[in-house]
Amino acid sequence: MTKHKRFAIAAGIIIVAVLVGWFTYPLATILTALLLTLAGGYGALWRHRRAGSAALVRRWTDRAKKHHGVANYWTILRVSSWWTLRRRARVLRPSLNGQTWWARWRQTPITELGTRVIRSGWLWVMSSVEEHGITLGGPRQGKSGRLASVILDAPGAALVTSTGGDLVRNTAQLRSEGGPVYVFNPSNVGGLESTLGFNVLDGCENPRTAGERAADLLSATPLAQGHKEQEWIERATEALGAFMHAAALGGKTMHHVQRWVADPDAAIETVLGILRDSPEPTIGFHALQFFKLGRPQSSVCMTITPALRWLADPVAVACASWGSFDVEQFLAQRGTIYLLAEKDGPVAPLITALAGHITRTARRVADQQDYERLEAALTLVLDEAPSICPLPLPAWTADSGKRNITLHIGAQSLSQLYDRWGEKSAGTLLTNCATVMVFGGTKDPAGLNSFSTLAGGLLTPSQIQQLPPLHAVVFRNGMLPVVGRPQMVWHRADHKAATRKAAWDSRVAKLGAICRAPFARAIAARRPVRQPIAALPAGGTAVREHEQLVEQHGLR
Questions:
Q1: Cα separation of 551 and 547, whole Å?
Q2: Which 8-state DSSP code applies to residue 94?
Q3: pLDDT in tens, 490-543
Q4: Chain-centre distance of CA 19, in angstroms?
């Protein structure tokens, strides 16, 4: 029903009521009409004054001062709470459209719709599966504990990057209960064995895939940091994409690609000969253009070389030489992948290539689904993202949320984001993320002043820097900042239960070994030591005794 129809119906009801009242109680009708007219006029005047810009700003200022610059309970409940997620359940999970509200509330866990961010009093600030988040905190401030809790809350598949094995130890056991768990560890971090292989050339028979893979490899190089040399990056992407496409078509390896980059003159005939069979002629023109660059050719080769440094590491080569990863099956099984690498190490391009492959495939799968969303959201927990997984996050965060691809980015400080993506792109990244969590302990003056400005100056840089341990301030869209305690993984009931079970199993195994040890020693002591005759020296005593026994018993 339109607004005009509702107004016409209301006006008709009022006219009928006035006519009935006029013929029954005229005086009462007149007084009632006067009172209603006065009330309506006062209400219209109050709404007019309240709707003005000055009144709106005054109300915001008064509310902020009243609550000392932070959000109150009512704002949290209205903007970013479990109640908000429940109201948007049919949007976040398209399969719930055909269910009643009672079935949605009773059968759908809240973690299927979002994750807990921070607790303020008795209310949790929530973040939905279509909203991205950034967590900033230095070493031992609680950043890893908070991201581990996000991993356990992931409703669907999860991709995790880390520079250590703490996230694996805290979450792998519980995540394995809901789907398969894989580890990709080309740097041998923490001694964890890789259970997943990823052939970098897999799928590069398609020119588009080769170009995307080359862009991911180059995005992790120092020259791409801050996009300072965008022209050389674009040329290097075209050349490396052509080489990888040729290697895939010709049955070559990444070592051949490295050799072609190191000596382009010797690779002209081989590369151009293979690319004649390419389904896309344009990629052959890119290779020909590279070979005819002249002096700038060496600059392009120098741009590509850092992206291939991992080929000097036998462990990384072993991880990147086998395996064809089925991303669609991984999403359907709600699995978990841990990508481990050293900070600013040579395998960062390899980690970025695998993460980019999974994310791009998930975006294409989402585009083919109803409502262009993944039914179970893919969660990317990118701890130390600027160092080990510098994907084009400023661009990806713009439209990944509507596909239920959620990014939770971990970094040490705001300046680290500026150094990796540049000030403008880092600003875009912060704008696209609905939640920004800042732990205490940071000593970056520019970052502290920026966050104090976001808080309207009511939270001073000193207050943000001196937050108690395991406390943080959260900036959310549509509400004032919230100061509280994020959910740490070691405070969760499921993590505590899993830790107790693992400790109990370890004690039982040790007790069993202790109990079996005496019996094993006794059996070993009673067992005769038998030595084969062939091991004895020829003509020895044992041999002569054996021959005498054979003659006595007529066994010859």
A1: 6
A2: G
A3: 888 888 888 888 888 888 888 877 887 776 666 666 655 555 544 444 444 544
A4: 66
* b/e map 420-439, b = 16+ CB within 10 Å: bbbeebbebbbebbbbbbbb
Q: Is the dihedral of CA 369, 372, 376, 382 positive or negative?
A: positive
C-alpha to C-alpha distances, 348 to 185, 210, 295, 497, nearest whole angstrom: 11, 18, 29, 35
Nearest in space to 110 (alpha carbons), one of 130, 90, 89, 131: 89
The CA distances from residue 74 to 55, 79, 122, 485, in Å, are 20, 9, 12, 19
Q: Which of 296, 227, 304, 224 is nearest to 258 (CA)?
A: 304
Q: Which two tokens stand for residue 379?
A: 């969660």
SS3 475: strand
CA separation for the pair 246, 274 (Å, rounded)? 6
What crossing angle do the helices spanning 348-367 and 207-219 adopt, rounded to 10°?
130
What whole-number distance in Å separates Cα of residue 420 and Cα of residue 393?
11
Identify the H or E element spanning 134.
Answer: strand 133-136
3-state secondary structure of 481: coil
Helices within 25-142 (DSSP H only)? 26-51, 53-66, 73-79, 82-87, 89-92, 101-107
Per the structure block, which two tokens stand in for 136? 């900033």
Rounded distance between C-alpha atoms, residue 290 and residue 215, angstroms: 16
Cα dist. 69→65, 309, 457, 475, 482 in Å?
6, 50, 8, 12, 9
104 vs 415 pLDDT, higher one: 415
- Tell me the one-letter amino acid at 412: Q
Type of residue at 195:
T
For residue range 5-61, what is the model confidence (pLDDT) as tens digits?
666 776 677 776 666 666 676 766 677 777 777 776 666 666 655 666 666 566 556
Return the structure tokens found at 38.
Answer: 């006065």
Residues 6+ apart with CB under 8 A from 366: 372, 373, 374, 403, 404, 405
Beta strands in 233-364 (DSSP E): 336-340
Q: How many helices (H) and strands (E) does the chain have?
A: 25, 11
Q: Please check whether residue 284 is in contact with residue 242, taking contact to mean a CB–CB distance below 8 angstroms.
A: yes
Q: Crossing angle, helix 264-275 and helix 281-291, to 10 degrees? A: 170
Q: What's the DSSP call for residue 341?
A: -
CA distance 169 to 174: 10
Structure tokens given for 234: 């674009």
**Cα within 13 Å of Cα(31), Cβ side:** 4
pLDDT tens per residue across span 309-319: 999 888 888 88
Q: What is the DSSP letter of 417?
A: H
Tell me how many degrees the CA angle 300-301-304 measures, rounded to the nearest 5. Answer: 90
Instruction: Give the span between the Cα atoms of 349 and 213, in whole angstroms.
Output: 10
- Rounded-to-integer distance, Cα 34 and Cα 30, Å: 6
Asked if 556 and 550 touch (Cβ cutoff 8 Å), the reply is: yes
Residue in the structure block whose two tokens are 């040399």: 229
Check residue 188 and give left, alpha or beta (phi > 0: left; psi -120 to 50: alpha): left
